[in-house]
Design brief:
Elements: H1 2-26, H2 40-67, H3 84-104, H4 117-147, H5 158-171, E1 174-179, H6 185-192, H7 194-211, E2 217-220, E3 223-228, H8 240-243
Antiparallel strand pairs: 1-3, 2-3
Amino acid sequence: MKTGAWCMDDERNCDLLFEYLRSILYDAKPQPLDLERLDEPFKKLGMGLQYLDRAVQEMKAYSAALSNGTLSAEAPGRDNFLCENLKNIHANLNHLTWQAKQVAKGDYSQKVSYLGEFSEAFNTMTEQLKQREGVLIEEAQQEKQQASLDPLTQIGNRYYFQREIEQLLQTEAELVFCYCDLDHLKYINDNYGHSEGDCYLRHFVDSVKKARAKTTCLPVLAVMILYYPEGLPKGGCVQQNVLDPA
């Protein structure tokens, strides 16, 4: 009779512990375990399951926060062994967030090497962003340059002139303005065609550009700006370097 009674008590304790374990694993809010309902030999196991209950609830709350992107969530203590991998993911996400912010600031040197396939995708993205930004910068520079140049002669137009003269005036350098009146341009256009007139203009521009090796000169359509950072040269005509091809 004692043996049979002992077996029934044993089964009752096991049922209580098993039901508690099931509730820990499957219920959103596990039913608490009353240790007083357990016989003495089973109380230690019941206390172990209570520890597991707390660890699982911490893990669920922690993983839910991470899944929602709440990176400010407090990580469980070291005694919760169930959360070790989650804490590693948390640390990686924090570092990845910092790297993403750096990329947003234009630092495309950021590389990820600790997240497997995601690392490859992230690194490909940053490389493509770097290339696209380079293309956009180059295109913007080309557009800015073209907006400031005369299409035929590729020398500065009035927008270029305005920008450059404002900068030169701030340097307090001595400036000389040379207004160029090309002889017989209308005659060439009327008698030989505008294509020859265009060649005439380009030839003149080439002569001016060659003179820049001798004179600090900014050629602008219909006007040349000569400037001398160290002051005007003594004697002679300041335009001579432009007019004299030698």
